[in-house]
Amino acid sequence: MVELDLIIKNGTIVTASDTYTADVGVQKEKIVSVAQDLTAGPETQVIEAKGKYVFPGGIDVHVHLQLPFSGTISADDFENGTKAAACGGVTTVIDFAIQSKGHSIMDAIEARRAEADPKVCIDYGLHAAITDWNDKTQAEIKQVIDYGIPTFKMFMIYKNEGWMADDGMLFRALEETAKLGGHIGVHAESAFVLEMLIDRYAKEKEKWGAYGHTLSRPAFTEEEAIIRAIKWAEVTGGQLYIVHMSTGGGADAVHAAKERGVRVYAETCPQYLLLDDEVFKGKNGHLYATCPQVKKPHDNERLWKGLLNGDVQVVATDTCTFTSEQKAAWNGDFRKIPFGMPGVETMVPLMYTEGVGKRGLTVNQLVALISTNPAKLFGMHPDKGTIAVGSDADLVVFDPEKKVTLRAADLQTNCDWSPFEGWKLVGYPSTTISRGAVVAQDGKFVGEVGHGKFLQRRPFGKL
Ligand SMILES: [Zn+2]
Question: Which parts of 237-362 fold into alpha helices (H)?
Answer without folding.
Answer: 248-259, 270-274, 297-309, 324-327, 347-351
